[in-house]
Amino acid sequence: xxxxxxxxxxxxxxxxxxxxxxxxxxxxxNTGGGNNTATNQGTNANGVGTTNNxxxxxxxxYVPEKDLNLKVWYTWADTAPTKGATEDVVTPEIQKITKVNxxxxxxxxxxxxxxxxRLNMYLATGDLPQVMYAQRxxxxxxxxxxxxAEKVWNLDDYLAKYAPNVxxxxxxxxxxxxxxxxxxxxIPSDVAANTTNAPELKGTTFEKNLSGxxxxxxxxxxxxxxxxxxxxKSVAELSDALKKNGKLTYDDVKVxxxxxxxxxxxxxxxxxxxxxxxxxxxxxxxxxxxQGWWIGPWSQAWGFAGGSGGPVWDDEKSSLxxxxxxxxxKDYLKWLHTxxxxxxxxxxTFTMSDDQRTSKLNNGQYAVTHFWQDIxxxxxxxxxxxxxxxxxxxxxPANTIADSPQFDFQDPRGGNFxxxxxxxxEEDLKQILNWxxxxxxxxxxxxxxxxPESAGLWEEKDGKxxxxxxxxxxxxxxxxxxxxxxxxxxxxGGNVNQIDLGRLIYTHDTIRGYKSVYETPKNVxxxxxxxxxxxxxxxxxxxxxxLTGMFINQVPEWGKLTGxxxxxxxxxxxxxxxxxxxxxxxxxxxxxxxxxxxKDLGLDKAMTDLTKLVTDYQTSVGK
Length: 623
Description:
- By secondary structure, the chain is an alpha/beta fold.
- The protein contains 24 helices and 19 strands.
């Protein structure tokens, strides 16, 4: 399991990218799975009960009999993976169990031609590779052509028997969103399955994973928080609770602050305290991200979830929703404008450099900031400076947006889509499915995380497993660099894409994390990570699948609307001016100028075209 601090840092980087560019949600927690070999019942994409057996024997009967050498075409890649493992202890074991031989050298790429051009070459020669690894977003035309030409297997009649773990681990929404003509032609991966939208997964490793991001969180100076809400615990008190109980509960971390109005009141009270830093600077109530990036942390904190940057599909209302184009978002900008007018927001927000802002943080000059930064390091700096206060997490006050609580939106397209060519026989199809299924099984995940026992990398005492090499163990837990790291041995969880290891599974929640049967020791002196866990696990937002990810690249206007020319441009220009405007009339003027920017880039056409693509798709799959 990664340390909580590392997890938060990784999550922040991912959230920033996703929020700004696509609006997709995702689950970024990687929690231990261990050797759970219990049989669990689930429901597959077609409603058939399945058993979570090891895929080496799939349904308990299938056992591969012959060796199969495999070639896989990555339809979207121009160059082959170059990293790979130095001393791969995993691939030979997968080959032994599944009898499928596949390494990074067996990956086929496009080498200077487009994916569609290479497909046409294959169709002309009748020599398709056995497996095609496509992307739903960039390879939609390839997928469509392969299906229409009847060159890939329909998997409906084979998954329950030969890939039961795949059926269990991919959510029904993900299957439904990737069906073509109501049929399954490919396996969607890169989908964060979870117990919120797939309750049948209870009892598998997924119950140990956070089922989606919790309520958005803010970072507050504990001394100022304590003055505002005496019942709120300081970092020292949280540390004492953690030492005493071994964990923090939601009751430990909760505060009396529920809405943006409450937060504004907190800003005002912190200003009225007239506090100074150790170097005589005034404490500023409200820190916003500089240089335009504040679109993410503060729109989320105010109440928007996955829709703050990219368009999302509201399945309940059968309509497209893009936060920046709504009156709700105007209300949010007006809230920021009020904070600026009342000198509750840093008046240098839009002019200072990141270094200047960092200096203010390190001096404890902000009452409230956000968690897109290393709070542990910040608290350590404050300790070294002799400060008595620390920064701690609170659940961010949130609005109800668009008549309902906001959701985390999850892109169901499966960024990658695994199809099996009809150039292979039915028997080879079964063996390939069994090979993929093994990578989705508990047995497969445990193997890929630890390596086989024969490799001698780990030991197990009293039911707890750890790597024998302390440096490798720290690399797995904390990302500490070492020459012989996870990647060196071909283990999952290292700083390398799964495709560089020649594996098709690439999910957010499963083998990318350290699949440990014990937890990282708690940092009781700086319990920030446990604050994160307590708030997140107690305030999980429901997750909805967002269908726009499958089609957004087919609407050229969206690339501009969600990029530097569009909403980010608004943030840095017109809407920044609206926030710092001297009066409400100027706020309206600059707000409308930003909306004009978006309309001139084709907002109305983009909404119409994307809505049609989604509704046509839903009709095609019978939704």
